[in-house]
């Protein structure tokens, strides 16, 4: 039987000696490479009116479109108001300059201690494990991030690991990106092995959207290194609407839990996506059905190109007050803003 991640091909004339290793892409890697990257294709597949196309092409020129098939399949055909579509459809408004909206809204450049190493908070560091994402979310605060300067070579990784090794105050490593799970399992297994050799490191946290947009990412290879590490594991998913959680996502979450991961979710409060008490309540309920606890509800980071997603603070507080009346406390996410230079997220 040929496995997808590592196959052996045998020549029929000499099977005993001519065994040639061949690496085939995993199912998720194939899906990643086949993601939609053309606004015209997205509009055509969803049966959208041609009137959406000029704006989509303008936004795409600023931040390229990327939508995997498994995520597309959860959108309603012919509905330009679909809450999943809103998260990925480029708009002409992304080209408007809006006061206060900047390219590095969290001032991450000031906290970068080396290529791919960001140290913002006490006790934990963030490693950019991959510059790529499986989906390009239009509101992303890293849509202008200089990934080219933060894609470490092996030697640079060694220096970052050395930094962690020499700082006993660091107890948690956060793998981020891009999406850390866009890296290959071979690379991730190498990195985790190096991290777990640092004696004062207790926890490994993954910030990822891949198990949501391509649930097949949670395959045996991933579960192998995740399940084997001595580090406590926290997977923080990023889901903004209940419609993102289908059976395949629920199954992927179950596999992550079985590997010993604690599952949390962070959402962004987004205009025309989840800006109602009903939408937020359904999201929390659906997350819990998938075994995931709501963790943060972030207000939008003021990144250039995303101002049309903003929900004012007062409205955000009212929504959460309404949500509090609907849900038990453990399903209520914390409404927060990240303010550059603060020692933690700031509750609203
Ligand atoms: S980093 Fe997260 S929010 Fe930003 S584009 Fe990638 S998946 Fe979306």
List the helices and strands and how they pair.
Elements: E1 7-10, E2 19-22, H1 27-33, H2 39-46, H3 53-62, H4 69-72, H5 83-88, E3 112-114, E4 117-118, E5 124-130, H6 154-165, E6 172-177, H7 185-196, E7 203-208, H8 210-213, H9 220-228, E8 232-238, H10 247-258, E9 261-268, H11 277-289, E10 293-298, H12 313-326, E11 334-337, E12 346-347
Parallel strand pairs: 5-6, 6-7, 7-8, 8-9, 9-10, 10-11
Antiparallel strand pairs: 1-2, 3-4, 4-5, 11-12
Helix pairs in contact: 7-9, 11-12
Give an overview of the whole structure.
The chain has 348 residues and is α/β, with parallel strands linked by helices. The protein has 2 domains: 7-95, no CATH class; 108-347, Alpha-Beta Barrel (TIM Barrel), CATH 3.20.20. The chain has 12 helices and 12 strands. It has helices spanning 27-33, 39-46, 53-62, 69-72, 83-88, 154-165, 185-196, 210-213, 220-228, 247-258, 277-289, 313-326, and strands spanning 7-10, 19-22, 112-114, 117-118, 124-130, 172-177, 203-208, 232-238, 261-268, 293-298, 334-337, 346-347. The strands form 2 sheets. The chain has a 10-stranded mixed β-sheet with strand order 3-4-5-6-7-8-9-10-11-12. It has a two-stranded antiparallel ribbon with strand order 1-2. Helix 10 (247-258) links the parallel strand 8 (232-238) and strand 9 (261-268). Helix 7 (185-196) packs parallel to helix 9 and helix 11 packs across helix 12. The model is unreliable at 1-20 (pLDDT under 50). Residues 133, 135-137, 140, 142, 177-179, 209, 238 line the site of iron/sulfur cluster (SF4). This is L-lysine 2,3-aminomutase. Residues 119-342 form the Radical SAM core domain. InterPro entries: Aldolase_TIM (IPR013785), EpmB (IPR022462), Lys_aminomutase/Glu_NH3_mut (IPR003739), rSAM (IPR007197), rSAM_sf (IPR058240). Its cofactor is [4Fe-4S] cluster; pyridoxal 5'-phosphate. It catalyses: L-lysine = D-beta-lysine.
């Amino acid at each position: 039987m040929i496995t997808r991640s590592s196959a052996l091909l045998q020549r029929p004339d000499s099977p005993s000696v001519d065994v040639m290793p061949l690496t085939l892409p995993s199912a998720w890697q194939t899906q990643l490479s086949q993601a939609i990257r053309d606004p015209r294709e997205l509009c055509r597949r969803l049966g959208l009116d041609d009137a959406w196309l000029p704006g989509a092409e303008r936004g795409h020129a600023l931040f390229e479109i990327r939508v995997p098939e498994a995520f597309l399949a959860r959108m309603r055909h012919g509905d330009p108001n679909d809450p999943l579509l809103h998260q990925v459809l480029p708009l002409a408004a992304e080209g408007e300059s809006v006061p206060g909206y900047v390219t590095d809204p969290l001032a991450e450049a000031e906290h970068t201690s080396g290529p791919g190493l960001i140290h913002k908070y006490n006790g934990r560091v963030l490693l950019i494990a991959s510059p790529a994402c499986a989906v390009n979310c239009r509101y992303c605060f890293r849509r202008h991030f200089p990934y080219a300067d933060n894609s470490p070579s092996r030697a640079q990784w060694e220096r970052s690991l050395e930094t962690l090794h020499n700082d006993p105050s660091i107890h948690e490593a956060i793998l981020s990106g891009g999406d850390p799970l866009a890296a290959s399992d071979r690379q991730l297994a190498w990195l985790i092995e190096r991290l777990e050799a640092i004696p004062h490191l207790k926890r490994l946290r993954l910030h990822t959207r891949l198990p949501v947009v391509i649930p097949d990412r949670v395959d045996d290879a991933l579960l192998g290194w995740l399940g084997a590490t001595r580090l406590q594991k926290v997977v923080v998913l990023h889901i903004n609407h209940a419609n993102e959680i289908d059976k395949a996502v629920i199954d992927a979450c179950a596999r992550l839990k079985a590997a010993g991961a604690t599952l949390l979710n962070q959402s962004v409060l987004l205009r025309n996506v989840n800006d109602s008490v009903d939408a937020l309540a359904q999201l929390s309920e659906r997350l819990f059905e998938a075994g995931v606890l709501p963790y943060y509800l972030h207000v939008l980071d003021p990144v250039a190109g995303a101002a049309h997603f903003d929900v004012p603070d007062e409205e955000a507080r009212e929504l959460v007050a309404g949500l509090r009346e609907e849900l038990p406390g453990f399903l209520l996410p914390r409404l927060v803003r990240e303010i550059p230079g603060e020692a933690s997220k700031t509750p609203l």
